[in-house]
Design a protein that fits this description.
about 280 residues; alpha/beta; three-stranded antiparallel β-sheet; 10 strands; about 30% helix; binds S-adenosylmethionine
């Protein structure tokens, strides 16, 4: 069910998406030299209407539900978390999951199109009214109000920041919005293995959806360009920064997080090259 801008609840903050912004932009824009596109601001040109519409095919909610199990919910409950800010809402998978589990959730994202889709998904999956806020992580405190027990930034989202300055700024904004004993959970692809094992040995990386492939199209130390191919042969690309695991851990520590546990594909013990995803759980106290 598609909802209009007026249906987006701005009560949690001041950043209701602009009507003009919500006009679906159908084409991804990478310009003449896609490999030169290495900018933190570019994500809004990548998550265009047609790609957003397909995103749920890519992530397949049911399969994702099964493969994640209760990992994130357990992490939050173990720390007595009540309020959660989902800063990379996307189409709303985790926000809906949190509401289902009784958490007090606010759903932020820098893409108005993603927020519109998330809002309609909330209604479709359980009749939830998502509290959506249009906010870029780098200016989070300006647009989102309140303090939270936890912040989640999931689905390999942090990778969209291309400069260290932006990463530090975003982490500092997350840190500031957490209560004194808050927890930040960020996940990322295992770029170390993609960078170190070389391009030729790559297997196809499947996110979750069947028949939808997500594979590296180009990799260097400053760019991971992934191609997403759908059963109807449509193709989309995302230009991302290949975050190394220990680099992200170091940044989190330097911003002030005291304890950081990194899981590999939801497991506590793993060999570094094996997992497709790392999950960092960072505690403030
Ligand atoms: N968490 C969702 C999931 O797992 O399905 C969405 C993941 S999607 C890969 C990344 C999301 O991060 C997009 O919705 C995008 O708009 C958002 N994003 C990227 N950079 C951002 C930024 N600087 N500020 C706010 N949102 C951002």
């Amino acid at each position: 069910m598609a909802k209009s801008v007026d249906d987006l609840d701005s009560s949690a903050g001041t950043g209701t998406p602009d009507t003009a912004d919500l006009v679906a932009r159908e084409e991804q824009v990478f310009g003449e030299n896609p490999l030169d596109v290495r900018e933190s601001d570019h994500y809004t040109h990548e998550y265009v209407g047609s790609f957003v519409e397909k995103w749920d095919e890519l992530i397949d909610w049911k399969k994702r539900y099964e493969s994640e199990g209760s990992f994130f919910i357990d992490q939050l409950k173990a720390r007595g978390v009540r309020s959660v800010l989902d800063v990379a809402t996307g189409t709303g998978f985790h926000s809906v999951r949190l509401l289902e589990e009784g958490f007090d959730a606010v759903s932020a994202d820098g893409s108005p199109q993603m927020l519109a889709k998330a809002f309609s998904n909330g209604l479709t999956y359980g009749g939830h009214i998502l509290r959506v806020v249009h906010a870029d992580w780098r200016w989070l405190n300006r647009d989102v109000h309140g303090e939270y027990d936890a912040i989640i930034c999931l689905g390999n989202s942090f990778t969209h920041l291309f400069s260290e300055r932006d990463r530090r700024k975003a982490l500092a904004e997350f840190y500031a919005m957490l209560k004194h004993d808050g927890v930040l959970i960020i996940d990322q692809r295992n770029y170390d293995s993609i960078l170190d094992d070389g391009f030729s040995s790559k297997h196809t990386y499947y996110y979750a959806g069947e028949d939808v492939s997500a594979e590296p199209d180009y990799i260097d130390e400053g760019l991971a360009r992934f191609k997403y191919t759908f059963p109807d042969k449509s193709e989309f690309f995302l230009n991302m920064y290949p975050l190394r695991k220990n680099y992200v851990r170091r940044l989190m520590r330097e911003v002030g997080f005291q304890r950081i546990d990194t899981y590999g594909d939801f497991q506590e013990t793993y060999h570094d090259a094996e997992p497709d995803f790392f999950i960092h759980v960072a505690e403030k106290k």
